[in-house]
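Running this now, will post back.
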Amino acid sequence: MPDRSFAAPALPLTPLAAGLLTMMAALSLVPLAARANDAAVQAASDAFGTSIGRETIGLYTSGSVRGFSPTAAGNVRIDGLYFDQVWGLSARLRQSSNVRVGLSAQGFVFPAPTGIVDLSLRRPDVEPSAQLVLGLDQWRGRYIDLDFSHPLSTDGRWAVTGGFSKAHVEYGNGTDGEFTTGSLAVWWRPDVHTEAMVFASAIDTPYDRMGPQVSSATPSLPPLGEARVFKGPDWAAYSGVGRNYGATLRHAFDPAWQLRAGLFHSENDDRASFSNLLLGMDAQGQAQRLVIADPASRVASNSGELRLSWAFAPAPWAQRLHLQLAGRARDRRTGGSQSLDYGTMSQLQPFQPPQPVFAFGAQSLDEVKQRWLGLSYELRWNQQLEFNAGLQHSDYRKRVDRPGLPLTETEATPWLYNLSAAWHFSPELAAYAGLTRGLEESGVAPGNASNRNQALPAILTTQMDAGLRWQMSPRLKLVAGVFDVRKPYYNLDAQQLYTELGDVRHRGIELSLNGRPAPEWQLVAGAVLMQPRVRGEGVALGRVGPRPVGQAERILKLNAVYRPAELGGLSLDAGFSHTGRMPATRDNRVELPALSELDLGLRWPLQLGGQPSTLRLLLSNALNHRSLELRGSGSYAERQGRLLAVNLSSRW
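Update: finished.
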C-alpha cells in the first residue's frame, strides 16, 4: 500500500466538466436550506477530528493524535467494536469518522492511550434514496461517487446500502493514479431490539505512480524541484487491491441486558510496489537515483469483538458492566525487494529507463495472534458524576520467519487498565481526568529504511490526561485539557535501521472551541501546544536529538462557515492551519520550518430538475505556499500546491 502525500482525490475541466456546466446552465438554480451535515464543520462536536465524506477537519486525524498514529497503533473501531484495520474502510460504507480523545473518550468502553478512531457506518434511510457527486479540478483530476439506500421489504426489516466510486487523481508532485471502489451492506432489523448487518467493500488500484523521496547530502533541506513535473520512471507505480468484509449484531434481551458483536476481515494485496529515492542531493539538485521494487505481497487480518453489557441499579446510581472478548489474527508477507541503482543525476533530468526484468528474493512472513478478555464498569450518579474503570488481560504472540534466519517467536501477556472520571459542577461546566495503559502496535519500517516494511513489535504505552469542558453559551463550547503520553521511540539509526532508540514522552495542552458565536457563523477552532521529548542512552551519548523527528510543538487549526440569511442558504467557509517548526533528522540538526496554509470554499444549495443539490468550490493552499513534508528521518517529498476543485452533488 503506497504512502502518498497528496491522498485526497481531487477534481477537472475536461469533458466531465463541460457536461456539468452544460447541465447547470440548462436547469433552474433555486436556493434550498442547507442540511446540517453538508460539511464536517457543521457535524463536528469538537475540534479533535471529524471526517464526513471527502472533508476532514480538526486538530487530529486517523494518522495523528497527540503526535502518534492511532491507526498504526491498532486503535480503530467500527461503531465502537474492535477492528484491526489493514485497509481503510470505504467512505461508501461509513457515515463519518471521529477521533475520540480526552473528554470525547469519556464513557468509551476500553479506550486506548493513542486515542480511538471511531468509524460510524452509514445507516439505511426509511425511503429509497441516492446521492451522486461529480468532482473535478484544475489539474485534470476527476471522480464520481454514487451512494444509495433502499428498503428490501415494505415492513422495513430488510434494507441495503452501498455505493460506487471511480477516481482519477492528479497529485501535487506531477504523478497520478486510478482508483475504483465498490461497497454493499445488507441490514436486518426485525424489531427495535435487534439489528444485524453484513458488508463487503473493495478498492482496486490499477496504478498509482510513486513520486520521489529526497534526502540531502548536507545537514540542510534539499532544494525543491519543478512544480507539478514528474521526471519518472512511469513504470514505478503501485498496483493492488484492498478489501474489507464484516458483520455486526446488536440485540437487547431486555432493558438490562444487551449483546453486541462484530466480526471483520481486512486485507490488501499488493501486485507491485516501489520506492523512488533521490539520495544525497546537493545544492544543485544532483543526487543518486535509486528505485526499490517490491514483489507481490499481502497483509490480512481477521478481527472482532463480542461484548455483553448489563445495566443495573436504578437512578440516581445507574451502573453498567461490560464483559469483552476480542482478538485478531494478522498475517504479513513482505520482503524480497530488489534495488536498482541508476547513478548520480540531476532531479531536473528526465528519467525514463526501460522497465527491467526483476529478480526478487525470498519473502518474510510475520504472524500475530492476539486476544483480550476485559471487564469494564460504568457509574452515572445524579447527572453529576461519571466514573469508568476497565481491566483487560491481553495475550499477544508473534512469529517471524525471515529467509536465512532462525524462526523467532515473542509473546507478552500484560494486564491493561483504564480509569477515568468526570464531575459536572453544573450543566455548563465539567471536569475530567483519566489514566490508560495499552498494548499497541508500533507500525512498520518506512520505505527508506534498511529494514523497510518490517513489522515492528507491540509496545506498552501509557497516557494521563485531564481537563475542563465549559458550555460558554447554549451554542458555544470550550474544551481545554492536558495530556502526557509515553511510548518507546522508534526511528532510523546511523545505519538506516528503523529500530528502538529510547523512550518518547509527549505532554502538552489541547484546546477546542466549537459552535455558533453568532447566528450566521459556525466555527471549529483548536490548538495543541506540546513538548515532545526523547529520552535514553542515545540522547545521553549525543546520537539522538532530544526532540522526536516530525513532531511540532505548536499546531493551530481554524475552520469557519459564514451563512448570511440574505444569500438564501449559500455559505462561505475558510480553513486556516499552522504547524510549528519540527525536527527533520534524528540528530535534530535539520528542521522543517513553520508552515501556515489557508483554504477557501463556497457551498451553494440549489435545485436541479426538482432535486436538492449542492455546488461546492474549494481552493486549497490558496496562497500556493510550496514546501516539503517529512517522509521519515531526513527524507522529504513536496507538499501539494494551490488547487481549485469543484463538485456537484444531487440527492433524490
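The helical segments are 15-26, 40-43, 537-540. More later if anyone needs it.
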